[in-house]
UniProtKB/TrEMBL annotation:
<comment type="similarity">
    <text>Belongs to the 4-toluene sulfonate uptake permease (TSUP) (TC 2.A.102) family.</text>
</comment>
<keyword id="KW-1003">Cell membrane</keyword>
<dbReference type="GO" id="GO:0005886">
    <property type="term" value="C:plasma membrane"/>
</dbReference>
<feature type="transmembrane region" description="Helical">
    <location>
        <begin position="100"/>
        <end position="119"/>
    </location>
</feature>
<keyword id="KW-0812">Transmembrane</keyword>
<feature type="transmembrane region" description="Helical">
    <location>
        <begin position="230"/>
        <end position="248"/>
    </location>
</feature>
<protein>
    <recommendedName>
        <fullName>Probable membrane transporter protein</fullName>
    </recommendedName>
</protein>
<feature type="transmembrane region" description="Helical">
    <location>
        <begin position="29"/>
        <end position="51"/>
    </location>
</feature>
<dbReference type="InterPro" id="IPR002781">
    <property type="entry name" value="TM_pro_TauE-like"/>
</dbReference>
<feature type="transmembrane region" description="Helical">
    <location>
        <begin position="72"/>
        <end position="94"/>
    </location>
</feature>
<keyword id="KW-0472">Membrane</keyword>
<dbReference type="Pfam" id="PF01925">
    <property type="entry name" value="TauE"/>
</dbReference>
<dbReference type="InterPro" id="IPR051598">
    <property type="entry name" value="TSUP/Inactive_protease-like"/>
</dbReference>
<feature type="transmembrane region" description="Helical">
    <location>
        <begin position="254"/>
        <end position="277"/>
    </location>
</feature>
<keyword id="KW-1133">Transmembrane helix</keyword>
Length: 297
């Protein structure tokens, strides 16, 4: 019972991050399941099945708050589903010994991407529509990485759309979260083909789903209030540190090298947090400077 409660809290925290940031549910949940000793394919399969329900709830909530661009959802979701199905079948064919460092390596790279991306100022929105020839390849790659890494749809799609700069951050996050319903369903179908029904951990799926459903409406509301950069850096640092353990074990590194590596990652995390806070303060100061004071009489 205690384990189920812990998993539900993991699902709640992961969905709060994902709904407010446009990424993090799969990364956070899969990383913690791997640390608990769950096989990579089973962890990714269970997380994606739970994500079908949590993404649906999140998408509805984002739609109600006006955070969804349906044209972007249509153009990114179907290629993402194709990539996710292919990625799930690839991961299902790998042995646990091979898959564990592979998945940890993908998650580590995505965590580093988050750290670097959100330590810098976010670009302002640009006028115009996001191009179709950009969205389809992005969805395909993000879906494949998501299924093979147990998470990655948001960390690949959200920063890419933010860099493109044609949508406001809240609409980027809402659109990516809404499209994730189809991507997660396709990944679950791929795992069902590759692993069968036994590949899904029923109690884990239900616990993650329960926590995520509670958090989804709150996260869609918080997306306009939470400091996105600090949250992105926090998730990136957590993912880096937890997956560094798996990579160090796979490489059979000596204890001294592991300790030095953890210290370096911790310092990088701290530096990225400070840079993110400084970027937020500069953006706030620039916004204040643009405010024209009302004339006094």
């Amino acid at each position: 019972m205690r384990k189920i409660i812990v998993l539900a809290l993991v699902g709640l925290a992961a969905q709060l991050v994902d709904g407010a940031l446009g990424m993090g549910y799969g990364l956070t949940s899969t990383t913690l399941l791997l640390v608990a000793g769950v096989a990579p394919a089973a962890a990714s399969a269970s997380v994606h099945l739970a994500e079908v329900g949590t993404s649906l709830a999140s998408g509805v909530a984002h739609w109600r708050f006006g955070n969804v661009d349906w044209q972007v959802v249509r153009r990114i979701a179907l290629p993402g589903a194709v990539g996710a199905f292919l990625g799930a079948t690839v991961l299902s064919a790998l042995s646990t010994a091979v898959a564990a460092p592979w998945v940890a390596g993908i998650l580590f790279a995505l965590g580093l991407t988050l750290l670097v991306r959100f330590a810098r100022p976010l670009p302002p929105p640009r006028p115009g529509r996001t191009r179709r020839r950009f969205l389809a390849p992005l969805g395909l790659v993000a879906g494949f990485v998501d299924a093979t890494g147990g998470g990655g749809w948001g960390p690949v799609a959200t920063p890419s759309l933010l860099v493109d700069g044609r949508l406001a951050p809240c609409r980027v996050i809402g659109s990516v979260d809404t499209a994730e319903v189809i991507v997660a369903a396709a990944a679950s179908a791929g795992f069902l083909v590759g692993l069968g029904g036994a590949g899904f951990l029923g109690p884990t799926v239900l616990a993650l789903l329960a926590g995520g459903l509670v958090a989804a409406p709150l996260a869609a509301w918080l997306v306009r209030l939470v400091p996105t950069q600090v949250l992105g850096v926090a998730v990136g640092g957590m993912v880096l540190l937890t997956n560094a353990r798996v990579l160090a074990h796979a490489a059979d590194l000596p204890a001294a090298a592991v300790a030095i590596g953890y210290v370096a990652l911790g310092l990088a995390w701290l530096a990225a947090t400070l840079l993110a806070v400084r970027a937020m303060r500069r953006a706030a100061s620039a916004a204040m400077a643009q405010v024209v004071p009302l004339p006094t009489t």
